[in-house]
Amino acid sequence: MFEQNLSNILGELEQQGLKRALRDTQSAQGPRIQFDDREVLNFCSNNYLGLANDSRLGQSIVESIQREGFGSAASRLVCGNMPSHRALEERMARFKGTEACLTYSSGYMANVGIISSLFGKDDIIFSDRLNHASIVDGIRLSGATLKRYRHLDMEHLDQLLESTSALRNRCIITDSVFSMDGDVAPLDKITEIAQRHDCQVMIDEAHAFGVMGDHGQGCAHHFGVQDQIDIQMGTFSKAAGSFGAYVCTSRLIRDFLINRSRSFIYTTGLPPLVTAASLKAVEIIEEDQSLRQKLWDNTHYMRAALRLAGFNTLSSSTPIIPILIPDPDVCVTFSRRMFDQGILISAIRPPTVPKGTSRLRLTVMAAHTKTDLDLTLNRLQNVGKDLGVI
Length: 390
Hints:
By secondary structure, the chain is an alpha/beta fold. It has 2 domains: about 20-45 and about 290-385, Aspartate Aminotransferase, domain 1, CATH 3.90.1150; about 55-285, Aspartate Aminotransferase, domain 2, CATH 3.40.640.10. About 45% of the residues lie in helices and about 15% in strands. The protein has 14 helices and 13 strands. The chain has helices at about 1-15, 55-70, 85-95, 105-120, 135-140, 155-160, 185-195, 220, 250-260, 260-265, 270-285, 290-310, 330-340, 370-385; strands spanning about 30-35, 40, 100-105, 125-130, 145-150, 170-175, 200-205, 230-235, 245-250, 320-325, 345, 345-350, 360-365. The protein has a 7-stranded mixed sheet with strand order 3-9-8-7-6-4-5, with helices on both faces. Strands 1-2-11 form a 3-stranded mixed sheet, covered by helices on one side. The longest helix has 20 residues, at about 290-310. The mean pLDDT is about 95.
């Protein structure tokens, strides 16, 4: 009966065009990859700066293995706290301009661990309706009262804060760059509202770190409000090309998380070679502006051309460029047609995005050439016209 129920659910997903399956990549990550045994242009990666296969990160890994070996072997509170962990956290705190930093094994574990340990059933959390699933799950685990405000709607957020008691701990939590829409939270307005209502602010910089800000620190610095945000969380698995996550915050909050955050306490520390690669990536992000400039040149060119062709790219203003195709079956067909022509762009469907908002999620990389962009634009237009999308 149990397996039959699971089979029925999977069957329903398949009928709705929503069933997912894993597909194989046979090469290192780059602008071109071997995918399902053929070479394709990669326009669905979060490897924004092209660092996932950068030789400088590879060299840092080799050196780290010679110094610290391969694995951490235990929780960092037992005997797994390695020198590379401390070096990365100290560098990140300086880079982000905070008192302290703590690393986690993944972005999901960071959000779940931070939110569920800092907030409880007597608290209220105000969450953007399109926040990442890890934020939603962290709030659920915390037991705090959830107030969801309409996406990027500052008037609605202000109204919700007005209607709740200031006697309870209150926190606004938002993605800074939204992973499926490519738009940006107005952190200047959010921090102003938070200060007026005596409310904390936590942001998820996963898709902003390395991309936004004069030196890639993220959206907090892009808006110049880094000193008004209590908790800046982000990941090393996207623009930094590595793995793991961080939270940049006060020393007090860091100490509290070390003592109360279950996803930190009960997890083996990140392998030192991973933290060494992340440290090298942070150094490159901070010191080399050319990669980010190329990324933005490619982004502006691609988005302008897509809009001129008649595609709906929503309110994207970042290297994440959605192409709205509301019908999930048409969206999947579009993605397959592009793959048949040598271009990998993922079809994103519910429940990852709301019903009726399926889209191709196109992401631009610094490593893409203008030839790559023009070839992709040409084939997007041809398939788009053929399927009646434009």
